[in-house]
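JOB MANIFEST
job_type = single_chain_structure
chain_count = 1
residues = 201
[input]
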Amino acid sequence: MNQILRISGYIFHPLLMPLFGVLCYYAITPRFIEPERMLANIYAIATLTTFTPIVLFFLLKNTGVVSSIHLFEVRERKYPLMIQVLLVLLIIKLIFKPYEDIELYYFFVGILAASLTALFLVLFKFKVSLHQMAVAGVTVFLIGVSIHFNINMLGSISVLCIINGLVASSRLHTKSHSVIELCFGFFIGGISQFLLFGFWV
């Protein structure tokens, strides 16, 4: 059980969740999307939300700005979150358009809002669980997709709820976060997506 909880923290890492949300959307959507365009978008999202932050993390680590990928210290979160905000802005500006990819466009607007909120809280020396924030955001987004396309996704949503609990247990088990930090992460990630439902659901 100890290994499962630790591994889940890596499998459901915040850097992977935007890509996971995009992959789930493309697997679910009944809307026709050209395969070439879909693959190009997946490649771009993987590059901007996963590979680029990893490369920049090693740069920050080598310069002493951060000491660990876990970002245990609140002050270490400032620059990674700033980088995430800039990369998500690039995605909103260059990849997804509100008149072509409305669901994914607002998915990333929600991610941007959550990231800005987490960054704002860092300025007050309060850290939220980025793991919980990311998983909650994807869960609420897929609930919106289910409503939007009138698709029964009860099984998938139930699995995501279990994953939310698994991630919370993992962060508590490793003493990475307190219950309050996990609750704030869940609330910020979920509400950032929910408040945008009025624009696309």
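[summary]
The chain has a mean pLDDT of 91.
The radius of gyration is 16 Å.
exit_status = 0
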